[in-house]
Design brief:
Helix content of chain A: 40-55%
Radius of gyration of chain B: 24 Å
Shape of chain A: extended
Order of helices and strands of chain B: HHHHHHHEEHHHHHHHEEHHHHH
Radius of gyration of chain A: 22 Å
Helix content of chain B: 55-70%
Number of helices of chain B: 19
Number of helices of chain A: 7
Largest sheet of chain A: 3 strands, antiparallel
Strand order of the largest sheet of chain B: 1-2
Number of domains of chain A: 2
Number of strands of chain A: 5
Largest interface: A-B, 101 and 130 residues
Oligomer: heterodimer
Structural class of chain A: mainly alpha
Distance between the termini of chain B: 27 Å
């Protein structure tokens, strides 16, 4: 079989090209052009210490913080080492009970009216850093009371942490929860 | 849909259509050995590669040798990856010290990535080292994609060439595809993704402090690693307070680009393209959808150019687009109608379970149909959590046989098999000679086409049927009742059609699924590929019959409509009973009929 030699050699050559040279080229250009993004879009404090990534959501449950979306990641919510969704089907009784419990928690915190879906349904990655604008707004009274600050201050903070549609029409407007909460702690 | 979602959807398809002609004609040039603007740099590289590997580029191959070379290369890919997965703890670039795969999981994963399926029964951030991801999995993303495209090109040559048994040289097609098409587009796409926030580095995982610490109940284990249980049988747990978390790092963007472009779909992370490091912004989301559809779409134009009839290519593309957009419409309707059982609890009536806020509904749904219409299988949405009718759309797109754009290459050749069936049936009905592109369709072509379109379907029905009576397979279901059946059906359909996405609640890392899955992936990939090459071999030997009054025109709207009907009827006849018991029953349960 004269084709055995090319099969093995081309496999090795392509491993070198696609598995070595290609990622090396991409890494070099990425670090030259977009160093911050390539490293993980980390937020740092004045001393340069990493506080977290703007792309990776963190768990919050204190009344004084804005709450993120529910997370179904492994072990605990927003665990970056075990990303994933709940994979619950829409008629699963356990899932419906979980959503019901989340609704109760929000009601206890003083939320009235129809609750935005993203605030009680788990994200796909379990790390979703964003909530919708609506979901942020309806948490303002609770956070204001817990922090004893006026709602106007928080409205302003939420507006500042809101990203609009990308290029004016792509995706959905959203609020970065970690960025917002870090800002609150520095108020 | 709001105005923005309409705009996003329409612009996505406009950009896609605008790219199809330039890329399609570029690919035609590449595979016909013509000069392109990249030849200046790449032609010398190509020569060196041929010299080292002992390939004679002018050497033409008949279908048997073409298929044999393809199988040999795939065998090398399989053995290489299997070995790497079993020994990754000994290899470099393993800062997290991840252990080797079990043999069942290594077998499953090696077959999965070699066959362009990228079914993943492991979680990337926990189970795979940087070296495995980069030198193993990413390489397979390139080469398995190039394999599919090469086969499609050989099949096109079968239609175009006359009175010869030669279909081209597999090694040349493979090399040119990788060098001229996959690598340049991947480099550009990877950098675009990095600009949006996809990571690209070789760092060890980073520890960051949590602003507010969290806690969870961690199960305790005995010395042998078995979970400890108290007298009543409940697991013993201890409450752990988490003050900092580890954030995984790695060469993600370079892998993400080829994973979408080559319709592979195997994620760097467990949550795949839903993970913010893989798909950070709405723009990156649109770029990824475009990458998924780009090559399968453009290949229809390449086909048109090489066959000397571009209308024929547009006709195939039209059929694909029609079904894809139809499925998107239904999915978008289902997801924005939401889940009445959740709405009853006082929640806004759209389904956001398993979706990311930044992508929005349309961005999530477009990704769902793109990734399942093609055999990509990357996900930015957890398909398991779609509404029943919504979830039936990706399932149906997979069950149709991965032809709605389909896998790179495999989509086109499977679609051509459907076209041959359509020509034959219409020929019987209206009494015209069955001819396609000037080649007479005879018994051998019919046999091969039937094998191509039925292999995956038959495999799906058998393996999911056996799963239903296998206790281990049933115990893997994460959701009860009708939804559990949907999970199994989806898993097997995805495996046998080389898609790789999942209703991921199902625990697929049990022997039944890893082993039967490995077999199904190999059957679903190689049986149709060999059959279609055999068909190309016999077609190329035929003489050309110029169209006459008795020829059915296959590049006009009536044939496109007919082909669409044939596809839908074959799909419905094969799978309607299974769909009725899964998603349709669940929908009726959900709306409370």
């Amino acid at each position: 079989m004269k084709d055995i030699k090319p099969a093995i050699l081309l496999f090795i050559i392509f491993t070198i090209i696609c598995g070595g040279i290609y990622p090396a080229i991409v890494t070099c250009f990425a670090h030259a052009l977009f160093p911050k993004q390539a490293a993980g879009s980390f937020l740092t404090d004045e001393s340069g210490k990493e506080l977290g990534s703007t792309l990776i959501g963190q768990p919050f449950s204190d009344a004084k913080y804005f709450w993120p979306r529910p997370s179904a990641s492994g072990d605990f919510g927003n665990n970056p080492m075990a990303s994933g969704g709940s994979n619950s089907g829409p008629t699963n009784p356990d899932y419906l009970k979980t959503v019901g419990d989340r609704v109760m928690v929000l009601r206890d915190s003083g939320v009235t009216g129809i609750i935005p879906a993203d605030l009680v349904q788990a994200s796909a990655s379990g790390l979703d850093p964003h909530i919708t604008h609506e979901s942020a707004r309806l948490q303002i009274p609770r956070v204001a009371m817990a922090r004893s600050v006026s709602e106007d201050v928080l409205i302003k903070a939420v507006e500042q942490a809101t990203q609009g549609r990308q290029l004016g029409f792509l995706g959905a407007p959203r609020v970065n929860v970690l960025v917002l909460n870090l800002k609150l702690d520095r108020l | 849909m709001n105005m923005y979602e309409w705009l996003q959807t329409i612009l996505l398809f406009v950009v896609l259509l605008a790219l199809i002609k330039p890329l399609g004609s570029f690919m035609a040039k590449v595979f016909q050995g013509e000069q392109t603007f990249l030849s200046l740099i790449l032609a010398p590289c190509e020569k060196v590669i041929y010299r080292i590997s002992g390939v004679k580029p002018e050497d033409e191959m008949g279908w048997q040798r073409y298929a044999g070379s393809m199988l040999l290369l795939n065998l090398a890919l399989f053995v290489g990856l299997f070995t790497m997965l079993m020994t990754q703890h000994l290899l470099p670039l393993n800062p997290q010290k991840v252990p080797p795969f079990s043999w069942q999981l290594a077998l499953n994963t090696a077959v999965s990535f070699t066959t362009n399926t990228n079914w993943q029964a492991y979680a990337g951030e926990q189970a795979a080292s940087h070296f495995t991801q980069m030198a193993g999995l990413a390489v397979h993303n390139f080469v398995s994609a190039a394999t599919g495209i090469a086969i499609a090109i050989a099949v096109i040559r079968g239609f175009v060439r006359r009175k010869t048994s030669m279909l081209g040289n597999f090694w040349v097609d493979l090399t040119r595809c990788t060098l001229y098409i996959l690598l340049p587009i991947s480099i550009i796409a990877a950098l675009l993704l990095v600009s949006q926030g996809a990571i690209q580095n070789f760092s060890a995982y980073k520890s960051v402090p949590l602003v507010q610490s969290t806690n969870y109940d961690k199960p305790k284990f005995d010395d042998k690693g078995a979970p400890l249980k108290e007298a009543k049988g409940n697991p013993v747990t201890e409450n752990v307070i988490v003050k900092e978390v580890q954030i995984p790092m790695g060469p993600v963007a370079s892998q993400e680009a080829i994973k979408e472009l080559g319709t592979n779909g195997g994620g760097f992370f467990n949550s795949n393209s839903a993970h913010p490091f893989e798909n950070p912004t709405p723009l990156s989301n649109v770029i990824e959808i475009l990458l998924i559809l780009l090559i399968p779409g453009a290949l229809t134009y390449t086909f048109g150019v090489m066959a000397g009839n571009t209308r024929q290519g547009w006709m195939l593309l039209g059929v694909m687009l029609f079904i894809l957009i139809g499925a998107f419409g239904v999915l978008q309707w289902a997801e924005s109608s939401g889940n009445p059982l959740v709405a009853k609890l006082g929640v806004q009536s759209i389904n956001m379970e398993g979706k990311e806020v930044r992508n929005g509904l349309a961005g999530s749904n477009l990704f769902v149909v793109a990734t399942t219409g093609t055999s990509c299988g990357a996900v930015n949405t957890m398909h398991d959590s779609l509404t029943p009718i919504g979830g039936m759309m990706p399932l149906s797109l997979i069950l149709l046989g991965e032809i709605i754009f389909g896998g790179v290459g495999s989509g086109l050749y499977t679609m051509l098999a459907f076209a041959i069936i359509a020509v034959f049936v219409s020929g019987l009905m209206i009494g015209r000679t069955p001819e396609f592109l000037g080649k007479k369709i005879e018994v051998r072509e019919m046999w091969m086409s039937i094998i191509v379109i039925l292999t995956a379907g038959v495999t799906v029905l058998i393996i999911s049927g056996i799963a239903m009576i296998t206790p281990q397979a049933v115990a893997s279901m994460a959701n009860p009742n009708a939804h559990g059946l949907s999970e199994v059906l989806y898993a097997v359909a995805s495996i046998a059609n080389n898609n790789g996405s999942a209703f991921a609640g199902l625990n697929a890392n049990v022997n039944y699924y890893t082993l039967s899955g490995s077999l199904a992936m190999a059957i679903g990939r190689y049986v149709p590929a060999i059959a279609v090459l055999a068909m190309a071999g016999s077609l190329s030997e035929k003489k050309y019959i110029p169209p006459s009054l008795g020829t059915l025109p296959t590049d006009k709207a009536p044939f496109a409509i007919w082909l669409t009907l044939v596809i839908l009827i074959i799909g419905a006849l094969t799978f309607f009973p299974a769909l009725a018991l899964g998603p349709i029953v669940e929908h009726l349960m959900m709306v409370g009929v």
